[in-house]
Write a structure and sequence with these properties.
heterodimer; A: Alpha-Beta Plaits; 3-stranded antiparallel β-sheet; B: 269 residues; alpha/beta; Nucleotidyltransferase, domain 5; 2 domains; 5-stranded mixed β-sheet; 22% strand; globular
Chain lengths: 94, 269
């Protein structure tokens, strides 16, 4: 399942997509949990009884601001969460 | 076996009781809707309101609590339903319910009072892709309701009025509060009410459509949620998505509760 967490507002579309098929049985030892400086990810058991990562609810409404520190304007060339997720389950829409 | 699904929406509580039917020779289990019930909560305590809605549904169906094998909850307030056996997300419940009503459905658009979302589902009714808007109500029913109030119309009149307009007036405001002032400006510039209604519903549809496009439009498209009662919105959404036909359930606001009750039944096996 592709789970899109985030929102669209007047300034743009801000979604973090998590491919749960790649997330189940994570081979990166859940590195996303610690890679994100804002600790936005957590592991939940979804409706199909699979343990997957999701974006914490409060962060879903403030992604544009929460992720700003890791974007190129802040000096990063690659996003820490996407780099840490070696199975390639995490993507940003912006 | 009877199971219940409770959809604790931000505006209303929907309860659906589902009964497993014994059909000799059928390759799969069959389910039938025993009773559906809706309640606008008059109590701020969601747990109390859910309990009241559930008891009313049981009474209407002539059932007792012990007749129901499992109660699953969904919706924004699902965690407040203390007596629920389990909770499932709106995506999982909506996809399941839509698939039960329309087995060929692959795209589900759910627009309720506070939130709109798009989902892609597989042949078994499992959600395979979803996108919602977790920030504001601009792409949902309460936005349309606030705008209809500004025009001093009921939601039904609002939808019908929009169907009488063929003008496209873009609404720039993304936020309900600012959009209301835009509507007031349109009223002051003597824009006909029909055109304003269409502008508002087109704006809601375009925001919902952005979420649906994120998951992709595929196969039969089913619209669920209370906003589907608004004929003007359905027309605006069809135009925004670029589809000629969409499938509309008779009681679109109950589909998530139905899906929830079906998931509860399946998990008893």
């Amino acid at each position: 399942m592709i789970a899109n967490y985030g929102y669209k507002d007047g300034s743009g579309e801000y979604y973090i997509s998590i491919d749960t098929d790649k997330c189940i049985g994570c081979t990166a030892d859940r590195a996303c949990l610690t890679a994100c400086p804002k600790l936005m990810f957590e592991i939940i058991t979804d409706d199909y009884d699979d343990e997957v990562a999701w974006v914490k609810k409060p962060n879903c409404r403030t992604l544009a601001y929460d992720c700003a520190d890791c974007k190129p304007s802040a000096g990063y060339t690659s996003l820490p969460c996407m780099t840490a997720c070696t199975p390639g389950a995490i993507k940003h829409s912006w | 076996m009877i199971t219940a699904g409770i959809d604790m929406g931000s505006r209303s509580i929907k309860v659906v009781l589902v009964e497993e039917l014994k059909v000799d020779g059928a390759p799969a289990l069959k389910y039938g809707v025993k009773k559906s019930h809706i309640m606008m909560p008059g109590d701020l305590d969601q747990d109390v309101a859910a309990d009241k809605a559930y008891n009313e549904a049981l009474a209407a169906a002539g059932l007792k609590k012990e007749d129901v094998k499992a109660v699953f909850a969904t919706g924004a307030g699902r965690k407040q339903v203390a007596f629920a056996t389990e909770g499932v997300t709106e995506m999982t419940a909506g996809a399941k319910g839509a698939n039960f009503m329309f087995p060929m459905c692959r795209t589900v658009v759910d627009v309720g009072a506070e939130e709109g979302r798009g989902m892609k589902t597989d042949a078994e009714g499992k959600a395979v892709d979803f996108a919602g808007n977790e920030k504001c109500a601009a792409g949902a029913g309460s936005f349309a309701e606030a705008m209809s109030r500004a025009l001093q119309m009921t939601l039904k009149e609002f939808g019908e009025a929009s169907l009488k307009s063929d003008k496209s007036i873009p609404m720039n405001a993304q936020c309900t509060v600012f959009a209301e002032s835009e509507v007031v400006s349109l009223i002051h510039s003597s824009t006909p009410k029909n055109d304003i209604a269409k502008a508002v519903l087109d704006a809601v549809a375009s925001r919902v459509c952005a979420m649906v496009r994120r998951v992709g439009i595929e196969g039969e498209v089913v619209l669920i949620g209370g906003m589907v009662h608004n004929a003007g919105f359905v027309q605006s959404l069809k135009t925004a998505m670029g589809v000629d036909t969409v499938s509309l359930p008779d009681m679109p606001e109950y589909i998530s509760a139905l899906g929830c009750a079906l998931i509860a039944a399946e998990r008893q096996h």
